[in-house]
Amino acid sequence: MNDTPQTPDPIRGSARGDAAVPLSVLDLATVSSGSDVATALRTTTDNARQAEALGYHRLWVAEHHSMPGIASSSPAVLLAHLAAATDTIRLGSGGVMLPNHAPLVVAEQFGTLEALHPGRIDLGLGRAPGTDQATMRALRRHNDPDPDDFDGQLDELVGFLDDAFGPRHPYAHIHAVPGPVQAKLSGTTASRPPIWLLGSSGYGARLAGQLGLPFAFAHHFAARNTLPALELYRENFMPSTVLDRPYAMVAASAVAADTEYEAARLARTMGLAMLRVRGGRPGLMPSPEEAEAYRYSDAEAEFVHSWLANVAFGEPHAVRQELDELIKATQADELMIVSNVHGHETRLRSFRLIAEAYGMA
């Protein structure tokens, strides 16, 4: 019998209960109407603890800016807090919007997180600004990175994370600290967070495949592109030192409640919130009462109806059935669940009910 402890795979998870694939959580630190940012961040912390106890594989937070209803504008700061409040669950960014930041800064932030919580941190990277164009200009000032140079920014980030610039590179003598430079000086082995590429179209899918990186697709807001993007990823996949075969995670919206009626009321709050975002009027997550009282135009009603068609909501067994169908259709290796609804307890309960439906609790 081999008693040597097995090193956990930094990417691939294990399914819990009777789920076909590992289940994970995307938490947007939602700020609900009638509440405040402090409560939203406490809820995200509670959610991380609960997700760990229930057997969810990982919990990610996402970078958004100038959106009053989302409190996760600084993933690295929030992840440090969540990691200190938990023990085993993987935590990461879903994602950091790389064009908003100098690659060296991202390498230092996530090098610090990895040093504090080795083997538990994921670095998910996106190409979009995570906000509107005006806010993007405020973020990037005059050194606005060319979004078409994402490949170059990614190469630079990897160079800092691995301390791997060639001797003629202009950054050859610059080191991300914490990082491999300390390990080299002390004769120890350094670890770094695995990089994931995120996407809602074909660009990230193709690049992740070509680089042999894990890929996470945003089905929760780009459902029409899900199957084409995953096909692109798998067609372009080249084995790497990171992965020998593709690993695709799909993020999907799901709301479970004790009754179908209550789940539908909660889901409609998501529809109204997204309607306001798309209309350039982002605000706090509306309550079910606000969503019921809102007077929708025909076009708005059609938008919300179309949006909710891609949300799995209902009693727990019904939500599980829809999620299982999505897993089968996409052949996803992992499913990340988004329950971006109004209210502290309703969000926590939705994740718990889904875990119970899969026999995880």
From TrEMBL:
Q: Which UniProt keywords apply?
A: Monooxygenase, Oxidoreductase
Which is an annotated Pfam family here? Bac_luciferase
Q: Name one GO cellular component term.
A: cytosol
Specify the Luciferase-like domain's residue ranges. 24-326
GO molecular function list: monooxygenase activity; oxidoreductase activity, acting on paired donors, with incorporation or reduction of molecular oxygen
* The family this protein is said to belong to: To bacterial alkanal monooxygenase alpha and beta chains.
Q: What is this protein called?
A: Luciferase-like monooxygenase
Q: What is the lineage of its organism?
A: Bacteria, Bacillati, Actinomycetota, Actinomycetes, Glycomycetales
